[in-house]
Request: fold
Amino acid sequence: MKFTKLIIATGNRGKYREFCEIIRDTAGENFADEIIFAPEISRMIVEETGKTYAENAMLKARAWAERSGLPCLADDSGLELDALDGAPGLYSARVVAGNDSDKVSWLLGQLEGKADRGARFVASLCLCVPEKFTLITEGECRGKIVDSPSGYDGFGYDPVFLPEGYELTFAELSGHAKNQISHRTNAFRKIYGLLKQ
Ligand code: IMP
Reply:
């Protein structure tokens, strides 16, 4: 199945770019002819009121599919720290007001003096194709949190996340390298696998 148009239901341009690369790296030109950034269609904001990543991803994908009549792909993701019993998790985007670097500072503050730096990124993806079907998958990427930020690529907590088996943070790796192993990629591979069945 190849879509003529596909909406990426996010207001975050960094995430939109990453999705375009993930789709190209995973499916080449076989997934969609045109990949649209949601704010180009509407200013709609969908409240993330779900209690799980999957519920939030579905809320966003369904709302945008209803609004546009087009296939929509949405995600909800977060960073879970072992030392904090999985926090900030679902609330990773909202832990403090401010920009990405304020959130990174908050995170490093929470881990101060803690030996356990284990963490995982988690992403749920939802693909909603109006009047046909809705698919939901989940992917993860395990790693640990470094002592201070390194690297300038990516977004969010990328500068402090060292994926398992690597010596560079997500922000030091190229986008292509991150997309080989990321939580979002792992979830997208499952969506692509289901569509090919
Ligand atoms: P949401 O999925 O848009 O609700 O964002 C979840 C939060 O987790 C945001 O603060 C992101 O910055 C962060 N996050 C999710 N995925 C990644 C990633 O791949 N790299 C860095 N931060 C991420």
